Amino acid sequence: MPTVKDVAQRAGVSVATVSRVLNNSEKVSEQTRQKVLKAIEELGFKPNLLARNFRKDKSNLILVILPTIANAYFARVVKGIEDTARKNGYGILLCTTQNSPEIAAEYLKLIEKKQVDGAIIASAKIEINFCKDLDTRRIVQACEFYPFLDSSCVLIDHRKAFYDVVDYLIKKGKKNILCAIGNEDIPSEFERKEGYRKALEENGLQFREENVIRCSYGWTELYEKLKNLCCLKKYDAIACSSDLMAVGAIKAAKALGLKVPDEFSVTGFDNIMMSRLYEPSITTVAQPMYSIGEKAAQILIDTLESPGAFKKQKIILPHELKTRESA
Amino acid sequence: MPTVKDVAQRAGVSVATVSRVLNNSEKVSEQTRQKVLKAIEELGFKPNLLARNFRKDKSNLILVILPTIANAYFARVVKGIEDTARKNGYGILLCTTQNSPEIAAEYLKLIEKKQVDGAIIASAKIEINFCKDLDTRRIVQACEFYPFLDSSCVLIDHRKAFYDVVDYLIKKGKKNILCAIGNEDIPSEFERKEGYRKALEENGLQFREENVIRCSYGWTELYEKLKNLCCLKKYDAIACSSDLMAVGAIKAAKALGLKVPDEFSVTGFDNIMMSRLYEPSITTVAQPMYSIGEKAAQILIDTLESPGAFKKQKIILPHELKTRESA
């Protein structure tokens, strides 16, 4: 079976030049390209299976790194990415990290190995130590932005979004408002807490650290925490950082005999399907999830198609307060 | 930089033998292996990035093909696959097909391209025409079994499961029972319909084709169909093929002023989180989703690790009827 070396010999060029032709590199003159293609044809040279990546230097695959698929929130983001990718001739592969930065780093290696052309990190937790030596042109952050990874990003203004929802509770007459957020080492959670603080302070209410409850995004942990909070009745509302947390809060309020929203108002975040279907339906913040995915994919694909035109972008998309029955 | 050829020369063996050593093939004597490893070390030979796949002939990645991630049902299956894969040193990549057999076929090509070692098809629709020439040892079907793809599979007995839930409705005194299922070209949907038929007939009730409603798995389509069914009141129950369908049915019953479950009982399928959280909570069938994923991954990995020991398996795991408020 003829090798690249045989092709180079016959065409009277170097192996590197043959590679360039196989690579569709623009650094080869048309005349040389024709010589090489002729030699390839005459010899019946077939780049083998593994050389295929090398030849095209493209897999036409985009990796999407998610913390989990258990949260329905991500399905729309993925759909936006997928539709945009498919329109542009790319497939997408998803992976989940359970928010482990080590696992995220492992999967990011697929870029270097050329098994994927680039990656969209959608909310998955990353750490500075695992992000050295990454080609940031091939990565876009979506929903969440870790500033130490100097890539393009597409997300909402989480601080303003949480400000809006707390401000809405205050305008509805609520004064003793709890806040339930995830871990503050996640940038959006830190931002949301700051939004909560700002809304209180601008409305002349005092921010109290002890009114900030940290918990997981599911419903059970907040449910247990609130049910065991002997003094829940001294509060009249809670702003939650996920819709499932809001379900937990509503269940706890009901268990303690509090009427939602009159005695205890609850807001969620993300506008997942359940927030609309739940009874009472849940006041929440809608992120433009599909658009975030779409835009992130478009930025990445534009760069992959024309690496020379790369320009780092930070896109902030508008959020929307969905007022429903729970607040 | 030294090449495989240099290593072969120095060790006094053929290039193929070096490949076999790099491949961890068992066809090399221990003595030869040691010679090659010594040459590799002395020359400082490093298999290059692209040769890595070649060297190990393994990506240590498993592809999971899903119809969508919008249905929370799949999150647990994926978790079972992922935990098992990780324990065995494999990563997993997910892809979604929106139930297009063409897209599933495209992703299955990643096996042939050696970008993944094998695939688990979890409920994604496939078609016989796209499944020729697949290496069925590298594929396991989960949740759903298309018999034309002669691979191992792990799933529940869908016919028996639907039989059980309809039988339960009948034992509760229901006599005019609708059935809502997805498209019957999906084997499990066909099986469920047969379970519905069998339960009716064994209980002396007549099966009527017109009482079978075909619709998508979300809640809206069934909701609209039932709301516009002028004669819904002549029925006293519906057995649905997904929990979201059940939500649609409950909403329609409520909209028409029917009390659930007294006047109209509703059952779902899959036991997604919402079925427990919804009010009324939804009687449903729990598939052992995590175990299905776990078992499918284990069968696949066992084969990948010892291809010689391959034996096609059909594993039927037990389902469980979860009786709640809606029926």
Plain-language structure description:
2 copies of one chain form a homodimer. Chain A is of the alpha/beta class and 327 residues long. Chain A folds into 3 domains: 4-56, lambda repressor-like DNA-binding domains (434 Repressor (Amino-terminal Domain), Orthogonal Bundle); 61-156 and 289-318, Rossmann fold (3-Layer(aba) Sandwich), CATH 3.40.50.2300; 158-286, Response regulator (Rossmann fold, 3-Layer(aba) Sandwich). The first copy, chain A, is 42% helix and 15% strand. Chain A has helices spanning 4-11, 15-22, 30-43, 51-56, 73-87, 101-112, 158-171, 187-202, 220-227, 243-255, 273-277, 289-305; strands at 61-66, 91-96, 118-122, 139-142, 152-155, 177-181, 212-214, 237-240, 265-267, 284-286, 314-316, 320-322. In chain A, the strands form 3 sheets. Chain A has a 6-stranded parallel β-sheet with strand order 2-1-3-4-5-11, sandwiched between helices. The first copy, chain A, has a 4-stranded parallel β-sheet with strand order 7-6-8-9, sandwiched between helices. In chain A, helix 5 (73-87) links the parallel strand 1 (61-66) and strand 2. In chain A, helix 1 (4-11) packs across helix 2 and helix 7 runs parallel beside helix 8 (187-202). The longest helix of chain A has 17 residues, at 289-305. Chain A is elongated and about 85 Å long. Chains A, B: This is Alanine racemase.
